[in-house]
Specification:
With 298 residues, chain A is mainly α. Chain A has one domain: Formate dehydrogenase/DMSO reductase domain (Formate dehydrogenase/DMSO reductase fold). Helices cover 74% and strands 0% of the residues of chain A. In chain A, helix 1 crosses helix 7 and helix 5 runs antiparallel to helix 6. Chain B has nine helices and nine strands. In chain B, the strands form four sheets. Chain B has a three-stranded mixed sheet with strand order 8-1-9. In chain B, strands 2-3 form a two-stranded antiparallel ribbon. A two-stranded antiparallel ribbon of chain B has the order 4-5. The chains are: A mainly alpha (298), B alpha+beta (238). The interface between A and B is medium-sized, with 38 and 30 residues.
Chain lengths: 298, 238
Amino acid sequence: MNEVHWGLLVAAYLFLAGAGAGALFISGCLVLSNKIQVPHHLDTAKISAIVGTLLLIIGTGMIVFDLTSFQYGIAHGDMSKFFRFYRLFMTFEPSSMMSIGTWLLTLAIIFASLFCLSFRAKANQPGHSRPFAMINVILAICVASYTALLIGDINHNLVWSNSILVVIFLLSALSCGAAVVLIVKTRIKITDVNHSFAKSDSALLALELLTVCVFAYSIRNISIFNGVDNLLSLSSDAGAIWWIGAVLIGLIMPLLLNLTSIIGKTAASHSREYLLAVLILMGAFCLRYSVLLAGQYY
Amino acid sequence: MLDRRRALKLLAGGAIATTGVMFMPAGNAIAVIRQQGKKRLAMVIDLSRCNGCKACVVSCGMENGTKPNEHRTQVIQTSAEIGDKQYAFNLPIMCNNCETPSCVSVCPTGATFKREEDGIVVVDSTLCIGCNYCIQACPYGGVRFTNSTTGTVDKCNFCIQRTSRGLLPACVETCTGGARVFGDINDVNSEISKLLSQSNPMVLQASKQTSPNVFYIGLTQEESNTAFSIHSPQLWQR
């Protein structure tokens, strides 16, 4: 395989769906743990749910933009090709992970929207959001895992069929969700005084770093076994994006930023929190893009 | 209780079975197809007869109206080492119209399917949305591509418009060396059936378990396990 059929748009789809699912997961957890009794947690949960829903919708849009029939429809003004994506909703193919994902994302967007509305309708009784929170937490885990299973279903692919990708994408979706929530918290000027957020985020990033290293090691071994160059070597495009973008910028630098604020026992400034969140989000995008490229380069 | 001797026997059995699958000659694939007893259209390519003229590539493009840089079939020029000698040979590549195709199950709209009546794997361009999932799922590089005229996925379908009327695919009809032989492998009187029983045909990447319906005569075991692509660089012809 030496042609890149899935590039930036599909990477954006995997990233946005993961980040949206992560934000909805954390929002749902805040509701289920009754933390929303505290007003600023309620605001955080509410805004994170709205942002998460928007990210899911934009992410789904990205996969539609990537369809060659859609691009052909735009280029040639052919409306029948432009709207061809409706075919996805005319059938359910249980053997196709993409068909399963289409319906899963549809359900996730519907329930995420209902979750957002539940905050608005029952502003004085936030407990009424609990059933929607429960459904959203489950759907968020399914969506975050699905983004890995979509490519994992290509079972002859040396990179994509690696099972640990599901765990990596799940952890990455959670850290992306945490980054989105961090941006929301920073926007509404909530300070992480006792470093609880920084500590849990650090644990998540450390776990992700570990799984990412295990994945890179297994890809190295698989490459040697199959007689191909290391698919994640630093000299390749995919490897450079992986090691510099995903590992250094997306994991090691945020981890160091978190640790310095925990060890220094000082609350991170808002600009530092923004930087932390942006680094995590950039890294998560690079992670998905490099995995996509590595799987298409041999 | 599993003693050491029995465990070793089991391990050895497993290793032999795995090796058998990895290096399965085309004979087993043919047996699988023949067991079904239905009409199964297939192609045999005799590499000793392919002179690399690419008449098949040109006639395919003219018959199916693809652009000059988009090919349903291509003849790649490659080399292999046998012993201490290096050999160069032409290798025609196309969709294998597999018996258990990996592209069909992943299609989210049902646009790619296998025809019951003759086993040809087709893409319905009126249903295809161009998600490229089938391209990713196919282990044979480049045999599926996006047709720039339709904006959907395209591939070799054994010239279905011709074979449905009893004609030969365009590439078979124009092959100057008579390297391509086409027909129903379940018809014992067909030329292809006789050729398959007389020779020792191989299929590409048998380990992928797709049971291809394109067979090669003159391909070594090592070459058949290689992941060739339709876009492999041409070694001696521009």
